[in-house]
Amino acid sequence: xxxxxxxxxxxVQMNIAKSTDSKGAQQGRMPMWIAMTILIAAICLGAAxxxxxxxxxxxxxxxxxxxxxxxxxxxxxLVLGGFACYGISSLLYIVALSRLDLSYAxxxxxxSYVIVAILAWRLLGEIIPAGRVVGxxxxxxxxxxxxxxxxxxxxxxxxPEESTITQALPDQN
Length: 173
Fold this sequence. Notes:
about 170 residues; 6 helices
């Protein structure tokens, strides 16, 4: 099969062969548990950022003017802390994405909904109604199913036809 021309507007799937050790782990790559730890740290920092932002704007009183809320971005330590958590979270998430499939990593962010709800209840005194608790439980079940879907011993491409770039649409000259 001749190599295809790449067009930026076409979705492409790249299957590039990687060497593996005797246990099926990719050589030169960090272990899955480290990548997952980085992802979980990113999720937790994102949740902490949400709580910091809420705690920061709560100090402004009930229904503050929009200008006051925007000004709190530079003069409220909790709001600044929330943005710092988001920034660090984003950096960690990029590292995790470089080692995990997007279809696996991105849905895991749903854990942040659960973490934020628990932190809001414990730290901000928010009431979590029963319906919300059921929804959070469903999210947890979904994340567990997602986590169990990870296949540690992915097949490695073996032939030259598997290590080429394939396009969603045929080449049109």
